[in-house]
Amino acid sequence: MNTISGKINDNYGWEVTVFHKLREASDGVIFFDGKINWDRYLADHLPRFEIHVVIFNYTIIEINIYYLHHRDDEN
User: Fold this and answer.
1) Domain count, the chain
2) Does any domain span residue 75?
3) How far apart are CA 54 and CA 11, in angstroms?
4) In whole angstroms, what is the distance from residue 16 CA to residue 46 CA?
5) Which residues contact 64 (CB under 8 A, 6 or more apart)?
6) In whole angstroms, what is the distance from residue 6 CA to residue 26 CA?
7) Domain enclosing residue 7, as ranges
8) Which residues, in sequence order, are bridge partners of residue 65?
């Protein structure tokens, strides 16, 4: 898998994945799926910003910026 990741600061991290095979064609085919999500709900690893594009069972690109911690750790 071609993934790189890092930290933006002490609370947020980032991750980018390119050209990753999700599943075999015998399991079914995803012809095209695209998602852009900005989830601001306060929960584990949220808030999160995500872009994910899948064509013919391959992730073309996936970008995540997310909260690094579990919310239970803050209590």
Assistant:
1) 1
2) no
3) 28
4) 17
5) 14, 15, 16, 48, 49, 50
6) 35
7) 2-31+42-65
8) 14, 49
CA distance 37 to 47: 10
pLDDT averaged per 10 residues in sequence order, the chain, 75 residues: 92 96 95 96 90 97 94 63
* Rounded Cα distance, 14 and 65, in Å: 4
Residue in 32, 34, 25 with CA at minimum distance from that of residue 55 = 32
Determine phi and psi for 29, rounding to 5 degrees: -125, 130
Assess contact for 48 and 63: CB atoms under 8 A.
no
Indicate whether this model's pTM tops 0.85: no
Q: Is 59 exposed, middle or buried (0-12, 13-18, 19+ CB in 10 A)?
A: buried
Q: Is 73 part of any domain?
A: no
**Does 17 map to a domain?**
yes
